[in-house]
Design a protein that fits this description.
Number of helices: 14
Number of strands: 7
Strand content: 5-15%
Structural class: alpha/beta
CATH topology: Protein-Tyrosine Phosphatase, Chain A
Strand order of the largest sheet: 1-4-7-5-6
Number of domains: 1
CATH class: Alpha Beta
Radius of gyration: 18 Å
CATH superfamily: Protein tyrosine phosphatase superfamily
Shape: globular
CATH architecture: Alpha-Beta Complex
């Protein structure tokens, strides 16, 4: 089963949840402890797909001041379920896994629309190993490097107005790494990073129980589906192992790996640390 939240004060992050009926796994990074203070509230949000955003939830979305949305999904995912955004939000496409021949992080979205067709993948018992490789791809794929470079450069841009949100399909892997990397760069401690990352297991999995039960009725293993939609600290560790091997530190990942200038990194800290 996926990991649970650590038992620490930093794990009590549920007040950051944005409860939208048609946009799952959405929360504000604001309020989390970072080096020198806290992450500025109301500036950066993360979520799952926005393809089903209702008009009412769209109004709430607009009230949060979100003016820029970064879609980290593949072209196939976007074509199948394009974002439905308020007119006030600008969409930026950043395909993290464009260079992947096959990635379970992108394929997992199909479980929502055709769970029975994924039974063979799940039954193979390799979902954790496949997700681990996807997390390594977040560092080693050129498309991932380009996508995360643009994401963080744009987030730091002092000319960018309003709040920002980044998402993928489930809001847990490509999105989870983006949030974790940003928190690491800003000096959040390990418990804080893990707490935000693992909150997906509390926020997303319960919303999928009807889907999981329906899939189970078709012969799909419910626990394997929960594993597919959940997150584990070991996945983040795989990304960090790849960074350590290539760059040594998270700071070098941002500077040497993503090519962000010292000025851009300083601008990010100035904008997001209170």
């Amino acid at each position: 089963m996926p990991d649970s939240l650590p038992d620490s004060p930093q794990a009590k992050t549920l007040e950051r949840r944005i409860a939208l009926a048609t946009a799952a796994n959405m929360r504000d990074l604001g309020g989390l402890g970072v080096d020198g203070g806290v992450f500025a509230p109301g500036q950066v949000f993360r979520s799952a797909s926005l393809a089903s955003l209702s008009n009412d939830d769209g109004q709430h979305f607009t009230s949060l001041g979100i003016a820029m949305v970064y879609d980290l999904r593949t072209s196939e995912e976007r074509d199948t379920q394009p974002d439905r955004l308020p007119e006030s939000a600008r969409l930026v496409i950043l395909d993290v896994l464009a260079d992947a021949s096959e990635s379970v992080a992108a394929t997992i979205g199909k479980l929502r629309t055709a769970p029975d067709s994924m039974n063979e993948l799940l039954a193979a018992g390799t979902i954790q190993q496949m997700l681990t490789e996807s997390y390594r791809d977040f560092v080693r794929l050129p498309s991932a490097t380009a996508a995360y470079r643009e994401l963080f450069t744009s987030l730091a841009d002092p000319r960018r107005e309003g709040a920002a949100l980044f998402h993928c399909t489930a809001g847990k892997d490509r999105t989870g790494w983006a949030a974790a990397a940003l928190l690491m760069l800003l000096g959040a401690d390990e418990q804080t990073i893990h707490a935000d990352y693992l909150q997906t297991n509390d926020d997303l999995l319960p919303t999928l129980e009807p889907l999981i039960m329906s899939a189970q009725a078709k012969g799909v293993d419910a626990d394997l589906m929960r594993d597919a939609f959940g997150v584990r600290v070991s996945y983040l560790d795989a990304t960090l192992e790849e960074i350590d091997a290539r760059y040594g530190t998270i700071e070098r990942y941002f500077s040497a790996g993503l090519g962000l200038s010292a000025q851009t990194i300083d601008a990010m800290r100035e904008r997001f640390v209170l």
